[in-house]
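This section describes the prediction task in plain terms. A model, or a person checking by hand, is given the sequence of a single protein chain and must write out its three-dimensional structure as a string of tokens. No templates, partner chains or ligands are provided. The sample shown here is typical of the held-out split.
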Amino acid sequence: MPDRRHVLAGAALAAGAAAIPAGTAYADASGSLFPLGVASGDPLPHAVILWTRLVRAGLRRPVEVEWQVARDERFRRVVRHGRTTARAELAHSVHVDARGLDDGHDYFYRFRALGQISPVGRTRTTGHASRLRFGVVNCQDFQNGYWPAYWGLAAEDLDVVVHLGDYIYEYDPSSRFADRRHTTPATPGLDQLVTLDDYRARHAQYKTDPALQAAHAAFPWIVTWDDHETENNYAGLIDEVDDTGAKLQTRAEFTRQRAAAYQAYYEHMPIRADLRPGRADLRIFRRFDFGRLLRLNVLDTRQYRTDQPGGFPGDFGLAEAGLANNGTLTGEDQERWLRAGLDHSPARWNVVAQQVMMSRIKFPNPTGAPVPPIVANLDQWDGYAPQRTRFLNHLAEKRVENPVILAGDIHSTWFSELRPDFDRPEQKPVAVEFTATSVSSDFPIAFDGPLKQVNPVLNPHVRYFDGSRRGYLRCLVTRSVWHTDVRTVETIDVRDSPVTTSAAWAVEAGTSVLTR
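The expected answer:
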């Protein structure tokens, strides 16, 4: 009897999931109307978002789409169904907010349009449970390699997947793999996307990967963006610090680019959000309660942040710049919203899912120059140290129960204990942080060994670090303990590679202390 992984793989391939050649991301040679698969997300106790996108060359008119939700994958027990319209102005994407479901239950869903039936997806509503199982993923550079981690993720027994950003990358076509070259944008040479068609084509290309389709079809996802869904290291409406010449954009130009990026993101994600096409803002910070076991606060640390301090190339520079920065990573409104959600939470575990590491990290100068010997990544919370101190003090003063920070972005695994003052190791930790490695994005292997050597001295609050492997985190949460497994693959040079547990750590409720 085939396992779920191979069933899902077959479903993805049957949906026409072979990679779309660069430049032809709107057409599907197999003739399927659903070459990008199906997905679900933003689960609530009685509702979930169901997503797909119709793709066919020359399709311009509105299309009526039927949807079904059933208790069984053969759809003998359909419990909800309806019709919606896929419109060209939203790239014929479909977002169904399927309501009236039972809490804490598995469901199956599918779509029908123009005489074709989509692949079947599985989803799950939230509910009161004694345990929660979820995966944490981020950073999937299509050009850097294949995604065997997603085959492993699809085969897990999970309730939900949390994606922390960098779902696509904006760079020009350039890959050592002939079938992983990016779509060609309207303006090659900028090494970034600009138009709505640019972003739509790139999202569609990523969605054709069969492993990613299988992972989406297996579980509901809760997603948030980071920088590469728009442009590397942007801050609010401020262009990347290293951009010059034709790459450098005015505020008005970047506003249009961000509006295109945000619309394409919405069109391709199973997200509950109020998109207004053409506008450069889209609120995606939101909250999910899994009974009284866990509250998940999902942040957006790109749209509202002030500029990274110092103006250093690549935003790597002196830590003092971050210590003196009274700017914000979240914006004032989102910070107030987060505090209120933590202060009044009924949950045993209070989770902040966001993009960049909160832990203070001292890096040996990556250029090898002796001056300065130590630098900080000012794109992370180290660039906004006063806000971080304010937040960590708040956790301690309000006695927020069992805070856990989730992060990504840095393409490596870091598990840390967080203190308001990182120079006082005698202080009791007020939270733990789990930073997930990338699915495929590169971490310079030359930095892996040196960081492992210096972390015990420079960053003693880091209990575990590894930059050598790609993969995801698998978390199992009960009222008494939180387990996190580091699930990694041997290589991303091939489409299929075994997934193994390379590390396992736990936190007992009430401690904020990491143990093996």
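For orientation: Residues 133 and 158 are 5 Å apart (CA to CA).
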